[in-house]
Design a protein that fits this description.
With 332 residues, this protein is mainly α. The chain is 60% helix and 3% strand. It has a 3-stranded antiparallel sheet with strand order 1-2-3, with no helix packed on it.
Length: 332
């Protein structure tokens, strides 16, 4: 029985080798065709600079726009190569060490997912403690770590994107380097940096919204914000009421028609000049409320007040001003 099985396996291997020998000439022919010019049969040459494959005999371009898998930079020594290499996670200003240090996880599990023993857990706990101490070696790094943690917490609560957090972190770093913190709280400067970054990115939040998530008072935020903007020469344009409209419309769950009409009302108000000296958040809230009524969608002043953090009295006053400006624009 064993001899029969062995003989059968030998026959199968011989058959497979025979089939491969029959296939090899065809494979060789295909490879030769790929390496030869389809016009004159000459040798093909790859031009890495132009990303083309051309015939060395007649100059026919057989392939073009080839992808270069190598780096776009050049290095002339090992040191320069290490400096330009971008292997690993990208650096970020939202972390005090720019994400270059190592974090030890808190799962107390090994690489296979198994729980660690009691001695190993104690050892890992000591390593975590010393790792945290080494990551913040001086008071400046501890200050930066606390501030960037506050910025990340407030940005998450306000639903701000990553680019705003990055900009706020850069502004706070500049304030720290320019020695603007003495006499001011870390939370106050961090909040003002986030407020400035949100306005620069075109996703502004009102001072009242910042106050709700911050650990400092509204007056301190406003005072510190003016100081930081003046000392760092930040170019921040006045907040546009239309930048608040998409968020209010989304929170209220109304249609795009309401957003379009609200923008039109604000454009008319700007042309008539009634926006001067008015809160952009209040104008935006009133425009959304007026647009919802004009679009026959049921939205109450209380609902608009909740999503915009603007009093109903302010919404009513701005609402009447917007409608009067619209009527003046329509009237001949």
């Amino acid at each position: 029985m064993t001899d029969t099985r062995t003989r059968n396996r030998t026959d199968d291997r011989a058959t497979e080798e025979t089939e491969r020998e029959h296939d090899r000439p065809e494979e060789r022919e295909r490879a030769d065709e790929r390496e030869r010019c389809p016009e004159c049969g000459g040798n093909l040459v790859t031009d890495d600079e132009r990303g083309e494959t051309v015939c060395a005999e007649c100059g026919l371009v057989v392939d073009e726009d080839q992808i270069d898998p190598g780096p776009e930079w050049r290095a002339f020594d090992a040191t320069e190569k290490d400096q330009k290499s971008r292997v690993g996670a990208p650096t970020t200003n939202t972390m005090h060490d720019k994400g270059l240090s190592t974090n030890i996880g808190w799962q107390d599990k090994d690489a296979y997912g198994n729980s660690l023993g009691s001695r190993q857990r104690e050892k890992m706990q000591r390593l975590r403690k010393w790792n945290e101490r080494f990551r913040t070696r001086d008071s400046k790094e501890r200050n930066l770590k606390q501030a960037l943690g506050e910025i990340d917490r407030m940005a998450s609560a306000l639903g701000l994107p990553d680019n705003v957090r990055e900009t706020a972190s850069v502004i706070y770093r500049r304030a720290l380097d320019e020695d603007l913190l003495p006499g001011r709280s870390i939370e106050g400067v961090a909040t003002s940096a986030l407020y400035a970054a949100a306005r620069q990115a075109g996703t502004p939040r009102s001072l009242d919204e910042l106050t709700n998530v911050s650990r400092v008072e509204k007056d301190e935020i406003a005072r510190t914000y003016r100081y930081v903007v003046r000392e760092l020469n930040l170019e921040i344009r006045p907040a546009d009421p239309k930048s608040y409209v998409p968020r209010f419309v989304s929170d209220l769950g109304v249609s795009e028609e309401v957003e379009r009409r609200a923008r039109d009302l604000l454009d008319t108000a700007t042309e008539k000049g009634i926006h001067s000296g008015k809160s952009p958040v209040g104008l935006a809230a009133a425009a959304v409320y007026a647009a919802a009524l004009l679009s026959n969608e049921k939205v109450t002043q209380s609902e608009v007040s909740d999503v915009s953090d603007i009093s109903e009295v302010t919404i009513r006053n701005r609402y009447h001003e917007l409608l009067e400006a619209e009527e003046d624009a329509i009237a001949p």
